[in-house]
Sequence to fold (576 residues):
Amino acid sequence: MTTATSAIRARSRRLNWRRAGAWALVVLAVAVSILPFYWVLRTSLSSNSALASNASNLLPADFNLGAYKRVFGLQTAQEAMAEGGSGAKIDFWIYLRNTVIFSAVTTAGAVFFSSMAAYAFSRLRWRGRNAVFGLFLATMMVPPIFTALPNFLLIKNLGLLNTMLGMVLPYLFMTPFAIFFLRQFFLNMSREVEEAAMLDGAKHLRIFFQIVLPNAAAPIATLALLTFIGQWNEYFWPLLVGNQDNVRVLTVGLGVFKSQSPQGAPDWSGLMAATLVSALPVLLLFVAFGKRIVNSIGFSGIK
Amino acid sequence: MLGFVVFYLVPSIRGLYLSFTEYNILGTPKWIGGANYAAIAKDPLFWNALGVTTQYVLINIVLQTVLALGLALLMHRVAKSTFIRGSLLLPYLVANVIAALLWFWLLDYQIGIVNNLIDAIGLPRIAFFGSEEWAIPTQALINTWRHMGYTALLIFAGLQAIPQHLYEVANLDGASPFQTFWKITMPLLRPVVVLVLVVTVIGSFQVFDTVAVTTQGGPINASRVLQYYIYQRAFTESDFGYGSALAVILFVILALVAFIQMKFLRGNESDLD
Fold:
């Protein structure tokens, strides 16, 4: 009896130690994920000249908003230099406008057309359906750079380099991932309502808009969210096609801003302020829809 | 449908065609057969890029899978909270460019916080981006940081799909946690792990953003990864034929890797069935 209880006690004590250790690891992982962002915030609120001498204090060094003024274009080059900035310019508002247009238009287009295609792949029966779908899945494997070179030539031949249209076109119609994602949901919808509607003489277009789309509102919203974030973060294609100020997006702009800073003393606080402001929309979306995003991860992994 | 044909199918075929031509954007492509491929086989920069990329991929697979598996187990056993899952996902949501710039600052040689900490515990500072031996591991670490939580969530979802009663049975039979892990968890997790491996490998072979923003292939050639090399050949040197041939090779490598992984790890089957 006594040996048994003491054995149990010893075991639970060991478990407690294990639990504490496990929690410590979890906390460490969370810290590694989040703390860099705090450090960016701290840097962006510091003044450049103070950063060098006071690089490790947890609070901002010589707290001020100069870096943000620089990013938003509220500071003259002289003021920026005086605060240790490089005087390099970032046309934040134009880049922001371009990024919003680029992400919003491609997301709307891709989600709309992809849902139509997904509908065709899941609810309609036609010859060669599975073969074509297989081809779609295969294109998910094609590295983007492989199609990027010919697509670049196509956009160039159409005279659309450095235009919004050229940036948007390849993403506008569909992405294989979106079709794959939506098809899984459409496959699980019950056929009964659809068949009833067909008996009433509804055409595919009506069924699609009035039955399928409303019923799939949740997955479509999730897909739109994921696509938007992905497009907001896109770098390679906008770099190729839109590398001039009038169409440059934030990611590309950040790269340029960084490379304009002289190697010796980069404008760290300005760069970090710009970084944070560029990431802000995604961070806000995440705060608003975090649960939806987190839950969608499980889905995309195992069907 | 049209979009698919115009921007996926036709470009794929055209890309293949261009790889057999000499083409500098101006004028028309000139058919030169396999000359590009022959040149690539003798191109030291290509072999360097392949080696560097492989190094990057290997560090990523090992670090990312092991860390993510550990994190997923931790989340499954002790901490299922959405807050924790959310914070782990945060790095994945920001752009590669932002992750790159963020670490470019944190790892700065002079006043970056990481080097200050290293200095504080009495070790020599590390030129993370400026030294040949560190350039690629640094890029891989940044990528691991960004993807670790995402990968962990994928595996976590897989863990949750494992029926609980299997563990109860194992417990009754007196299996140790170690045995349970290797005999139940790992085999049933295999499809997810295969997926994670395929996604990680395919993703890491295409590293570009981080390199383009931080080291631009340097120092010397230490971080000139395949995709960056393709970009340079095609867009900086306007050698589209050569660039396309390199892209074809990258594509073939990816297809091979995915095929082998699926084959060896039997990714399509699940022991649950």
